C-alpha cells in the first residue's frame, strides 16, 4: 500500500497486538476502525489477524464461499476443533500437542481448554493431559430420546410387574449419578417401590453394578470419579471380581442396602450402539399373604425377558443379554 487509507473491519476472531516493547497481548474484538498504512496502525502498533483472511485494499466482490462464511464464530470453531481432535485421539493429549495439531499457539487455546474442562466436555488428567468426557454422548441422548425410552419401556414394565406380582423401576445414568426415570407398582396393595427422580448409588446397588459391570475400563473410571467427597472411588478386587461375574451372567442380584428382606434383581437395557443406556430393577420381596406368587427365579426370568424387549425397542437390531 502507498498512502494511508481508512478501513473498518468487522471481526469475530482473536487479534494479536504486538507492542513496541515486544510484549504480545491477545484480545477478543468485534469491531476495529483504524488508519492503516503498510499494515501498521498510526500509533505504531501492528495488528495481525488470526484466522481471518482480510485484505488491505479494495474489498473484493463477495463470492458464494464468502457469503456462506459471513456469520463465522471463530471461538466456537476453535472449541469444536478441540473436541473433534480429542474425540479422534487414541490417548489423552497435552496442551502443546493440541496446539500443534490445530496449528495454533498453546496460549491461544488455553482459555478454550479451561472452559471445556469447567463445562465437563473435556477432562484434565493427573498428568496435565486432556481427553473428552461422555457429556456430548449424554446430550445426544437427552430429553426427546429419553422420553422415547420411557414411553417404550413403561408398557413392558407394566406387563412384567403384573406377571411377576412385583414392582420394577428404570434407572438411567446422569453424569456420575443414577436416576430413576420410570417406576411401576405390582398389582397388589403392598409394594416396595422407589420414587421417580430418586438417585441411586453407583456402587453396591443392583442398577449401579449393572452399569459398572458392562462399562469398559475408561467409562468405569469416569463413572467412579467424584463419588466420595469429591474424589474418585476405588473398587477393591472383590468388587471387581463380582462385576466380572455380573457381566458374564448378564444380570445382578444383590440384597438391598436400604431395607431388610429386599433382593434387587437388575438387568441391562442396551442402546443402538450396544452400550448400556439403562438398568431395569425389581426390588423383590417375599409376599407372605400370597404364597403362590412367582418365586425369585421366575421373577428374574420375567425381568430378563422384559429387559430384552425394551432393548429391542430401543435399538434397530436385537441385542442379547450377555457381555
Give me a quick take on this structure.
With 323 residues, the chain is an alpha+beta fold.
Description:
Helices cover 36% and strands 23% of the residues. The protein has 10 helices and 14 strands. The strands form 4 sheets. It has a 6-stranded antiparallel sheet with strand order 11-10-9-14-13-12, sandwiched between helices. A hairpin with a 2-residue loop joins strand 4 and strand 5. Helix 2 packs across helix 4.
Main sheet summary: 6 strands, antiparallel
Mean pLDDT: 76
Total of helices? 10
Secondary structure: helix percent: 25-40%
Query: Which segments are poorly predicted (pLDDT under 50) over 5 or more consecutive residues?
Result: 1-60, 317-323
Distance between the termini: 69 Å
**What letter string, H or E per element, gives the SSE order?**
EEEEEEHHHHEEHHEEEHHHEEEH
Radius of gyration: 28 Å
Question: What characteristic shape results from the CA principal axes?
Answer: elongated
Strand order of the largest sheet: 11-10-9-14-13-12
Classification by helices and strands: alpha+beta
Number of strands: 14
Q: What percent of residues are in strands? A: 15-25%
Amino acid at each position: 500500500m502507498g498512502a494511508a487509507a481508512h478501513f473498518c473491519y468487522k471481526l469475530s476472531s482473536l487479534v494479536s497486538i504486538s507492542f513496541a516493547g515486544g510484549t504480545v497481548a491477545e484480545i477478543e474484538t468485534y469491531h476495529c476502525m483504524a488508519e492503516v498504512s503498510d499494515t501498521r496502525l498510526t500509533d505504531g502498533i501492528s495488528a495481525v489477524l488470526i484466522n481471518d483472511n482480510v485484505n488491505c485494499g479494495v474489498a473484493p466482490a463477495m463470492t458464494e464461499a464468502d457469503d456462506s462464511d459471513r456469520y463465522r464464530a471463530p471461538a466456537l470453531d476453535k472449541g469444536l476443533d478441540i473436541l473433534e481432535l480429542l474425540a479422534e485421539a487414541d490417548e489423552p493429549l497435552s496442551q502443546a500437542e493440541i496446539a500443534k495439531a490445530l496449528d495454533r499457539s498453546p496460549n491461544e487455546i488455553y482459555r478454550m481448554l479451561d472452559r471445556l474442562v469447567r463445562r465437563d466436555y473435556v477432562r484434565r488428567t493427573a498428568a496435565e493431559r486432556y481427553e473428552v468426557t461422555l457429556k456430548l454422548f449424554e446430550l445426544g441422548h437427552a430429553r426427546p430420546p429419553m422420553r422415547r425410552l420411557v414411553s417404550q419401556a413403561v408398557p413392558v414394565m407394566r406387563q412384567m410387574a403384573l406377571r411377576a406380582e412385583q414392582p420394577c423401576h428404570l434407572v438411567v445414568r446422569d453424569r456420575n449419578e443414577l436416576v430413576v426415570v420410570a417406576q411401576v407398582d405390582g398389582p397388589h396393595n403392598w409394594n416396595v417401590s422407589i420414587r421417580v427422580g430418586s438417585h441411586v448409588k453407583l456402587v453396591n446397588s443392583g442398577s449401579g453394578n449393572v452399569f459398572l459391570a458392562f462399562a469398559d475400563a475408561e467409562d468405569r473410571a469416569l463413572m467412579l470419579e467424584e463419588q466420595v467427597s469429591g474424589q474418585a472411588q476405588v473398587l477393591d478386587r472383590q468388587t471387581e471380581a463380582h462385576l466380572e461375574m455380573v457381566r458374564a451372567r448378564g444380570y445382578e442380584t444383590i440384597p438391598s442396602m436400604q431395607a431388610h428382606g429386599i433382593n434387587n434383581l437388575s438387568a441391562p437395557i442396551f442402546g443402538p450402539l450396544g452400550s448400556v443406556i439403562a438398568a431395569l430393577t425389581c426390588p423383590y420381596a417375599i409376599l407372605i399373604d400370597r404364597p403362590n406368587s412367582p418365586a425369585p427365579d421366575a421373577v428374574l426370568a420375567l425381568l430378563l425377558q422384559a429387559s430384552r424387549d425394551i432393548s429391542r425397542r430401543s435399538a434397530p437390531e436385537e441385542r442379547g443379554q450377555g457381555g
